Every structure is written in structure tokens, then in C-alpha cells.
Amino acid sequence: MRLASRVISLFLIAAAGCGGSSTAPSSGGNNNTGNNPPPTNNPPSTSSSITVSNNFFDPSSTTVAVGTKVTWTWNACSGDGYGGQTCTSHNIVFDDGASAPSQQEGSWSRTFNTAGTYKYHCTVHGSAMSGTVVVQ
Q: Of 97, 88, 98, nearest to 129 (Cα)?
């Protein structure tokens, strides 16, 4: 019985010594001590190719130079799990009145000859599916 009592005592002492720390890593600055991943600085997109998916544009915002032709390519079909696919029509309507037809597949392009910010959306999804082209 004495041996069992000593083993339990040693166990309790060891467990007490393994207590956790209540100090959280600092959230300020770039303290990359291995506890936190380094911060990521994703540069803004400068792509002239945009994918039209089932409920979003990718990228949703891009910056291009004056005179750039931007192409939207539809990828709005998804598999149904049984070898078939379901396709949804989407369109592009710009705030300035330019628009692309409603379609499930294919592509559409627009050349931006004037600097400015061009906002657009899909009328099926409204503001939930919107994008911006910034022309500099």
C-alpha cells in the first residue's frame, strides 16, 4: 500500500509541474516565433482573365492598365455526383450600362480605354455576385 501511495504522490507532483501557461502569443508586430504563421500580404490582382463561377467572380477585383482587354470565362457548371452536370446561367452588367449576355459557358471580353473604376454584377445574384475593374 505504501508503494501505491508513493506512486500516486509522484504522479500528482509530476502532473502539477506540467501545468499550462496562460500567456498568449503577442498579436502585435511581426513576432514570428513559430507560434503564429507569418502575415500574408496578398497583392491585388492584375489579371485580365476573370472566371465566372456559380456564385462569384474570380478574382472579384482586378487592376489593369488603360487599353487592356479583360476576358470573363464562364465556369458555371458543377457535377451532380452521378456523372451529369448542372449549369447555371450568369450575366455581367456594368454600372455604366455595358453588359454581357446571360450564358452558361463561353467567354466575353471588354476593352477598357478610359481610366476609372468599373463596377459590375450578375443580375441572378445581385450584389452577392459582384466585381470591380480598376483601370489606371
A: 88
